[in-house]
Structures are given as C-alpha cells and as structure tokens.
Amino acid sequence: MLFYPATITLSNRTLDFVARLIRRHRAAIGSRWRRFTPGRQALLVLAHLRNGDTYQRLASGFGIGLATVHRYIREVVDLLSAVAPSLEQAVARLTESFSNYALLDGTVIRVDRVRHQKPYYCMKTRHHGVTLQVLTDPYGRLAWVSDGLPGSVYDLTAARHHGVLDTCRDAGLTLLADRGYIGAGDGTITPYRFWKKELGPSYKAANNAHAAIRCRVERAMATLKNWRVLTRVRASPEQVTHYARAIHVLEQQTRS
C-alpha cells in the first residue's frame, strides 16, 4: 500500500476551534481517555469534511479502525451542527444588521442511491439528491441552511415547508429569489418570466438588475460545495443536513 502526504486548506484557527469544542464535550460527558487527543480528532474530521476523504482512507492514514473513524466523525459533526443558527436567529441577525433584504436559493446535494429512491431523484439535476434551502445576507455570506428534503421537492415547496417566506415577511425582510420561487407571494421578488413572446426593454432591465444582485447567492453555494464531502454524500441522506450545518458553523468561525 502506498502512502502520501496531503494538506487541508484551512487555518490553525479552525483546527483550534474544533479542538476546543471536542475538549468541552469530553469534559461534559466525563470522558477520561480517548486514543486521539482533541486536536487529532479535529484534524480527522476536517480532513473528511474539507477533502472528502473516505472512512477507509482516513482509517489507513490515521492508523485506526473504520468504526472509530465513523464514531469520531459523527460525534464532531453533530456537535458542530447543534450550534448552527436557527431560521429565527438568522433572520433576527439580518434585520439587526440594517439589511432590508436577503437572498434565497436552493441547491441539490448528490447522494448515493437509497432504498426508497423515487423521492430523492431530482429531474432537474438528473441524479439522486437532497435539496437544501440557503439564506444569505446581501453580500452572499451564509446566514442559514435548512434541513434536507428529498431531491424531488421543488424550491418553492421546500421554502414553504421550512417557513422561510412567512418568517422573513413577518420580520419585514424582503427576499430576492430566482424563477423557482415564482408564486411565493408578497415579500419575495422574483424575475419576470415570458411565455411565447419577448419581454419589453423595461422588464429586461428589471431582470438584469435583479440578476446582478441575486448572483451573489452563488457565493454561498460555492462556499458549501468547496467542502468536498458534499460533492457526493455516501452516508445516509439525513446526514446531509448535519454536514451542511457543520460547514456553516466552520465558515462562520473563519469569518469572525
């Protein structure tokens, strides 16, 4: 078997943050001894999230068993996911920052085939996946990541399911979204659409202005998918939610 060195494109600050979280958790549960120190366990988890390294590769590289790798990763991912902001907290922070609008979009995270395949098959992307709703500030920085829903669920249906539209409307926060949210009602601005005829110059100008602002939400999508574990999730579809929220927390730590 061949071995090679690898790097993780993250700072020591991120490693220290995760290690402190693990250390507090071990003290809280009264864990007396572990084979890995908190720093070593944090490095293992970051290698999985950032580089997308499989359990088998991590087990070989760190010299531990597959079950231990699985247990260590799930433990830390759940810890990170638990401190991710809720929708209400995210909307409150956006309104407190004097922003009168936010950006909303959805993305489909690819997963392996599951037993009940049909609900998870997305016709738009032509593969099985889990759909996530993402809310960002006007600059495209992540503010909130939703629970995962089967890939066949449309963006507007998912937004209504999570209560994003009503929560933002009640807070006086205007949403900018793409054509997938047409019909969302008051408080959500979507592009004009045309059917069998061209739009007039004023409508085209409005769509161009809308696209120039809304394109910043792609920054949030790139932020999520820059963590290779979301390239194709080989765990249970329910784990996509925990992965995405853990990544959100780590990105917030990087910005702070």
Describe the overall structure.
The protein is α/β, with parallel strands linked by helices and 256 residues long. It has 2 domains: 12-82; 87-236, no CATH class. Helices cover 48% and strands 13% of the residues. The chain contains 10 helices and 7 strands. It has helices spanning 12-29, 38-51, 55-62, 66-82, 87-96, 155-162, 164-170, 201-214, 217-225, 239-255, and strands at residues 101-110, 121-122, 127-136, 142-145, 149-150, 174-176, 188-189. Strands 1, 2, 3, 4, 5, 6 and 7 form a 7-stranded mixed beta sheet that branches. The longest helix has 18 residues, at 12-29. The chain is globular and about 65 Å long. The model has no long low-confidence stretch (mean pLDDT 92). Its cofactor is a divalent metal cation. InterPro entries: HARBI1-like, HARBI1_dom, Transposase_HTH_dom. Keywords: Hydrolase, Metal-binding, Nuclease.
The count of helical stretches stands at: 10
How much is the average pLDDT?
Answer: 92
Low-confidence stretches: none
Helicity level, as a percent range? 40-55%
Secondary-structure element pattern, one letter each: HHHHHEEEEEHHEEHHH
Helices and strands: which structural class? Answer: alpha/beta
Largest sheet: 7 strands, mixed
Q: So what's the overall shape?
A: globular
- The value of Rg in angstroms is 20 Å
The proportion of strand residues reads 5-15%
Number of strands: 7
Q: Roughly how many Å apart are the termini?
A: 41 Å
Q: Please tell me the total number of domains.
A: 2
